[in-house]
Amino acid sequence: MGLALLIVYLKTKFLRTNDERYNTSAKFWARIFGINFAVGVVTGTPKEFQFGTNWAEFSKSAGGVIGQTLAMEGVFSFFLESSFLGLFLFGEKKLGRIGHWWAAFLVWLGSWLSGYLIVATDTWMQHPPGYTLGPHGEIQLSSFWQLLVNSWSVWQYAHTMLGAVQTGCFVMAAIGAFYLLTNRHEVYGRIFVKGGVLVGMVAALLQLFPTGDTQGKLISQHQPITLAAMEGVFHTQTGAPLAILGQPDVQKRKLDNPAEFPKMLSFLTYRNWSADIRGLDAFPEEDWPDMIPLLYYCYHVMVGLGTIFIAVMVLSALLCSALLCSALLCSGAASCMPSARCSGFLCFAFRFPTSPTPPAG
Ligand code: HEM
Questions:
Q1: Dihedral sign, CA of 83, 84, 85, 86?
Q2: CA dihedral 101, 104, 110, 114 (to 10 degrees)
């Protein structure tokens, strides 16, 4: 899904500059997108059956609700994406420049619509609006629109899609860097590094704020027990610290070896350094999540990786900036040519040599 956006970016650059190298790059990544798409279809289809095999009782009672979004995902977005992917991969000559751009755009639209409908299914489970209970306890959909535009969906969707964009950007920039470091297809290496780093930096920053931040606030409003578990807060505290490291000991109800920022959790959650954060002790034990350490570690790994991604992308973008490079790493634009091998090779990544070479495959 991240690659779909990057393919539209490359096709748009091609339309605007008429530089065939962007078009070749877009087609190169479309083939990799096609492989991912095929793997997604093969692995995704059994997942639909898992609703029945693994969560039969849930599917029986909530099927009337989640069946709507899951069916729409198959009927609308999957077919939109697959039809136009075929046209994009095989129909360039017939479609022409503008038509081919539209094919790329509709592949992107189909894949991102697909993402929305899957996330909307998941957000309904996190925060369910628009339903009533039937006479036998079955869940009935009372408002289709509330299911579709659930307030939680917007932020979770933005956050999840930014994760996909970052993944695509890291892969694209890494392949570009590999080409540059091995002196192969350098012109394409530069396009990949530049596109991956620029789009990836924006995505990495938005992942933290506002999307990750708002997700945290939604959790604190609607699922305070989850917040306490994922932050490792066992006891209610005024001015709660933010633990960036530590191991939750559920038996002893404490965090071992914590590395904490004082009062930061209260501030991040309520924008108030002295706000109360309810700990797990404020809730009956039977309502606690089943696997508190798993939840705690997954959440901390996610935020830790998100922070590292921001640092890597911002540093790469700085190294990419010709200004910084000419000021610190080499003697100026004239000396920064394809043959140069300064430590700021990402700066070198931004310059186009005169003779392009096509990428492999
Ligand atoms: C930059 C720091 C980040 C912060 C502060 C943050 C914050 C959050 C929060 C609060 C949640 C909701 C947790 C829950 O529902 O229990 C969440 C979920 C999620 N995050 Fe992050 N996140 C960050 C980085 C990332 C990164 C780097 C990725 C992927 C590349 C990512 C992907 C996801 C996904 C896929 C979900 C699951 C959505 C769901 O099913 O609820 N996050 N994040």
A1: positive
A2: -140
The residue whose CB lies within 8 Å of the most ligand 1 atoms, and thus the one to mutate among 118, 125, 127, 159, is: 159
Indicate the pLDDT class of residue 48, thresholds 50, 70 and 90: confident
Q: What are 250-271's pLDDT values in tens digits?
A: 999 999 999 999 999 999 999 9
Instruction: State residue 139 phi and psi, 5-degree precision.
Output: -90, 125
| Contact (CB, 8 A) for 260 and 243 | yes
Euclidean distance between CA atoms 149 and 147, whole angstroms: 6
| Residue 160 Cβ contacting ligand 1 at under 6 Å | yes
Q: Which of 119, 199, 207 to mutate to test the pocket of ligand 1 (most atoms within 8 A of CB)?
A: 207
Neighbour count for residue 164 (Cβ, 10 Å): 18
| Interval 61-113: pLDDT, tens | 999 999 999 999 989 999 999 999 999 999 999 999 999 999 999 999 999 99
Question: Is 2 in contact with 110 (CB distance < 8 Å)?
Answer: no
Spatial CB neighbours of 295, under 8 Å, sequence gap ≥ 6: 226, 229, 230, 289
Sequence letter at residue 159: H
User: Taking each helix axis from N to C terminus, what angle separates 79-90 and 92-126, rounded to the nearest 10 degrees?
Assistant: 150
Protein residue with least CA distance to atom 42, ligand 1? 302
| β-pairing verdict for 254-261 and 242-249 | antiparallel
Give φ, ψ of 284 to 5 degrees: -60, 140
Q: What pLDDT does residue 332 have?
A: 42
CA-CA distance, 204 to 236, in Å (whole number)?
32
**Spacing, Cα 266 to ligand 1 middle (Å):** 19
Q: What's residue 338's pLDDT?
A: 43
Mutate to test the pocket of ligand 1, among 215, 298, 305 (most ligand atoms within 8 A of CB): 215
